[in-house]
Amino acid sequence: MKDMSEGYVTADGRQIGGVLMEMKNITLRFGGVVAIKDISFDIRDGEIRAIIGPNGAGKSSMLNVISGFYVPTEGEVWFKGVRRGPMKPYQVARLGVARTFQNIALFDGMTVLDNIMTGRLTRMKAGLLSQALWYGAAEREEIAHREKVERIIDFLEIQNIRKTPVGRLPYGLKKRVELARALAAEPKLLLLDEPMAGMNVEEKEDMSRFILDLNDEFGTTIVLIEHDMGVVMDLSDRVVVMDYGRKIGDGPPEEVRNNQDVIDAYLGVAHD
Amino acid sequence: MLYREAGDFKTTYREDNQTFPIRFDRIAYYTTVAAAFAVVPFFINDYWANAVFVPFLIYAIAALGLNILTGYAGQVSLGTGGFMAVGAYACYKLMTAFPEMSMVLNVLLAGLVTAGVGVLFGLPSLRIKGFYLAVATLAAQFFLVWLFNKVPWFYNNSASGQITAPERTFLGQFVTGAQTSASAKYLFCLAFVFVLALVARNLTRGTTGRKWMAIRDMDIAAEIIGVNPLTTKLSAFAVSSFYIGVAGALFFSVYLGAAEVGESFGIQKSFLILFMVIIGGLGSIFGSFAGAAFLVLLPVLLKNVLVGTLGWPTDLAAHIELMIVGALIIIFLIVEPHGLAQLWRLTKEKLRLWPFPH
């Protein structure tokens, strides 16, 4: 087991803790297709870690491995110093990993409030009988969790739409509701799959602010995949660069930016 | 002008969570319940009980049950008739095996037995979805009807193959058998409807309901936020089958008095209740009532108008009635695919703004 006490201090003075999750030699194959080839990296407590790379590099597959949706063909996933065996996605959720999706995966038939409340399902324990009568534990629990959820609603500034069915909302707000649902679970590790995709500049600014604030305020560790390089370079503490399923760079943004392999992958290399 | 939220401030989450947040709705609801319990029983006669109220109430329970499964949890079922038969036969066996047992207990236990059977037939839902699940439940429908026809133990070896409800009392009043009064039948069913509708509402607005709806709207995302699909789907099958079993037990013991499985609980019944749920509104408690009312009342109304008012011959009226009901179902679904509940919701939204829509 790796030493959990080591850490580092970021340029803006945030203390980053020890290793929260470690990916060791992860390989993921679908039949003959190799999506991820022997990748290792770690995610430290409290940091914002970006995964970037050209289309088809295997970023989303990597996120799916972290969230437990895919079981890696080879390699080990260590979380909080314990090796994670093959698990069902809902079991991983209970360990404190939450995520948002590239193509929004909200529950369209439910209101914003109900959607966010689903983020707290793993914490709600009242029995069926109590729920059926809406009395005792069920009602107390409902109100207690509602208070937490309202705090997140305030934080993300979506008070005015809390009773609107999600299906009626515009794209940018849906992204925000999805973030709220992930936050409601009070995750230790939050995975964001292209949180800014399809947004205009203003929406991107809002979303960046929310990501920085929630990292700062709740101490949530964040792993994000993003194509907007400006956003990635500004937000993240360390960046993993992937190309064709391999890791071609890993380190602080400015280091990655000057890495010759990364520049080649993004701009292409002259073949002679 | 009466229908306003303005000035009606909610200061606690408890108040905000109530079923009828608007005062006018609340008053209307209490009035309806009070009238149903305290006024209707004094005026009800055999015709109204047998043609309108009792079938409406029993179908409302069945529709609530199917709505929980299909409307809230998104699992299509065509086995409703078969599950009602399970409730009916379980009730019959309990009534004949334990003559001293309270009728309420009989009905509830029949519901529990059906819940068990429902969970069993719900197991395939973990692997298959949509139309394929519908076919699997269709198999349940045919299997259950066949079983109750084939095994004489279920109908106590009676020569006709029918089951006949023995006379049972509740609180000193006959609730089954020939001597039952119209108001006793009505009140007995109404009590079940009242409690079960309340429970359905509570379940669907809380944790369990959110799990069901999450699975319905996007099962993969639901699993990733921590919903266990196994327990969630099976709990939907269990609760839904409980309701349908109670409906089946009441349908046989209180309403029909005697039943033959293929005739009373055949595939037509499954479709009738599915239509109620679709026309009423998937995923709505009110919709279950509206759908049941629509499909129970409409034929009665048409018959009265065609035969009573217009004086048409009965056989012609019966055929025309089928055609009109069919046409109306289609028209309704074209005008409002989300059912009567959605129509009602839109009306309420307009009412809130009326008479100044801007």
UniProtKB/TrEMBL annotation, chain A:
Q: Which residues form a coiled coil?
A: none
Q: Say if the entry is tagged with keyword Lipid biosynthesis.
A: no
Cellular component aspect of the GO annotation: plasma membrane
Mind listing the UniProt keywords for this protein, alphabetically? ATP-binding, Nucleotide-binding, Transport
Pfam families xref list = ABC_tran (PF00005), BCA_ABC_TP_C (PF12399)
Q: Where is the signal peptide?
A: none
UniProt GO molecular function? ATP binding; ATP hydrolysis activity
For whether the record's keyword set contains Nucleotide-binding, the answer is yes
Domain ABC transporter stretches: 21-269
**Protein origin, superkingdom:** Bacteria
- Family matches, as PANTHER family: ABC TRANSPORTER ATP-BINDING PROTEIN (PTHR45772:SF1), CONSERVED COMPONENT OF ABC TRANSPORTER FOR NATURAL AMINO ACIDS-RELATED (PTHR45772)
Return the protein name: Amino acid/amide ABC transporter ATP-binding protein 1, HAAT family
Organism listed in the record:
Phaeovulum vinaykumarii
From TrEMBL, chain B:
Listed InterPro entries: ABC_transp_permease, LivM-like
Q: Which domain of life is it from?
A: Bacteria
Q: Where are the transmembrane segments?
A: 27-44, 50-69, 101-123, 130-148, 183-200, 236-259, 271-296, 316-335
Main localisation, per the record?
Answer: membrane
Q: Give a GO molecular function annotation for the protein.
A: branched-chain amino acid transmembrane transporter activity
Keywords, A to Z, come to: Cell membrane, Membrane, Transmembrane, Transmembrane helix
Q: What is this entry's stated membrane topology?
A: Multi-pass membrane protein
Report the subcellular localization.
Cell membrane
Its GO CC terms are: plasma membrane
**Keyword match Cell membrane:** yes
A Pfam family annotated for this chain is BPD_transp_2
PANTHER family with a match to the protein in the record: ABC TRANSPORTER PERMEASE PROTEIN (PTHR30482:SF5), HIGH-AFFINITY BRANCHED-CHAIN AMINO ACID TRANSPORT SYSTEM PERMEASE (PTHR30482)
**Name recorded for this polypeptide:** Amino acid/amide ABC transporter membrane protein 2, HAAT family
